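**User:** Hello, beginner here. Are you able to go through the protein record under this note? It all follows right here:
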Amino acid sequence: MRQFHSAISGALVAVALTQLIAANAAEVDAARLHAAPSNNADWLSHGRTYDEQRFSPLARINQTNVGELKLAWFYDFDTTRGQEATPLVIDGAMYVTSAWSKVFALDARTGRELWRFDPKVAGPKAIDACCDVVNRGVAAWGNRVFVGALDGRLIALDRATGAQAWSVQTTDPTKRYTITGAPRVIGGKVIIGNGGGEMGVRGYVSAYDANDGKLLWRFYTVPGNPKDGFDSAVLEKAAKTWHGEWWKYGGGGTVWDSMAYDPQLDLLYIGVGNGSPWNHRIRSNGAGDNLFLSSIVALKPATGEYVWHFQTTPAESWDFTATQHIILADLTIDGRARQVLMQAPKNGFFFVIDRATGEFIHAKNYVNVTWTTGLDPKTGRPGVVPEARYVREPAMVAPGPLGAHNWYPMTFSPQTQLAYIPALETSNYYQHDDAFQFLERTWNTGVVVSRDPANAKSVADAAKSKGGAMLLAWDPVAQREVWRVNYQRAGNGGLLSTAGSLVFQGSVDGMFNAYAADTGVRLWSQDVQNAILGGPVTFELDDEQYVVALAGIGGVALAGSSVGSQSRSEFGRVVAFKLGGKAALPALIATTSRRPPDVRRANAEGDIEVGHRNYTRVCMACHGENASSNTAIPDLRYSNAIVEREAFKAIVIDGVRADKGMVGFGSALSPAEVEEIRAYLVSLAIAL
């Protein structure tokens, strides 16, 4: 009876809090979003402001007192996969997503749950998702919040109750489209893209009416089959930069993450992804720039009309997306005031572009880069090292597909005039796939991953990119590094800068850190028991400044990444800090050391090398290169499932673990191929 009474009391408190917050809530409209730079109490949109600077004018927490920052509250999700969202904070309520596109409303002062919404994404999407079942957040307009679900739906929810107002399918559900990115709202239009570039889809971005979900416009980033006619004159011109029968592979070019908006110019900026397949020789007969792949495109948000574009990697062949964080700022360059757009995409260069015209201003590499001889100083067009295209022989190229900067948000501080980049040093072996066949249920890269890339030609000393992560402070005017913090492990986390002259960042080792924005000195660090990958936020309520982030590792398995040597929290969580906080995280329960299975009776039959090839084609995206997974996704070298032939077949082909997100691959793999994959995994377990 006491437990029942406690549950009733908790429910009544939650209802009372929801009603109180709803009573004090005001609609989110254009005026409120435009005034966001001076609003300290809220975090109204994904990048805090339309320019996506992720800078806060709050300075209550600063270099002198950040050491007193303590945990104020935490909230544990019910999901174990990756947590990549940036929370929104509106009128005392926090709106945040977790894995599987779930949405939660929390009291921003205490972390108490107000409501939750589960879109009940279908299980098969677990394997159709690139990459993992993550979600990066919601958008707000009026009295609603909007979330893009993994299965391609755009859903409107009542801010006060979480009740669904409307839902629309934004993608073809028969294709391998997904949504993991956060929507943006401009003038009552909800802007959303999608993912799945390697899975044979054609990228686009769409706008929907916030009131009823009606489709208002759609801009395709790659042309379709010319026989069907072109969607616009712009795409007809873009088609001249493509060759062969690219449309059979979809083309790629998905708009899966970054956007920004300039209210004065009334321009929406989108970042466009890689080609499908990666291999330019297969995708486009090795010819043409392939617009608008790996490009920043400016559109009119009212109509989706094309205005200008800048292509960061013409004829890309390495998974060099331009979907990385876009930031708008006003800088003085060569004595001239410039309205600029800044991006540090995967290809390793920091670009500064005129955001009104798309004119190239300047760029410089911020990590070791070997695929290009450099950029044309007038146009920004790269000169590609011929060997880097791996047409005749394999090549080791830097950066690799993980990029010099992945999806982790960067930040710009008007106070220091520095951009802060969560950067990576990577390189990768690329080899043309002579036996490439397009398959709908697998990754289509056109690239062979070798078990032993030692014989690959190292292009311009790609070996210098030994791997690792770093936080870079970058001067976008002088195009130079000001300071850096090196991390020992691969992987990185999103950033927040504040007027307290601080930069906040989490990392894969489970630590949440604050650095001096001017020098890079670490001033504060807190163990949050899991990786922080997404962007932290800060806001002020009742004269107290809070700093909040999400913890929980997931996504594509990164070689060398781990969350320390200790156990990590089982579920993802929200952690909130303030000066003098009194909360404490629960103690971790130590886990037993992993032991490889007893494979003496495995009796795996099949060609190990063929098994490795098929593992790479179908399994590697989730379970990691050479089956080395350090995320929430199982490390198959330690799985007892590889011991028994029938048990392994039941999982991989029959989908007996579909409820866990691992549905069957019977349409992509034959029983013989599955047995060859098992033979490969058994060989890895033996080698442990």
Observations:
- The chain is about 10% helix and 30% strand.
- The first helix runs from residue 2 to 24.
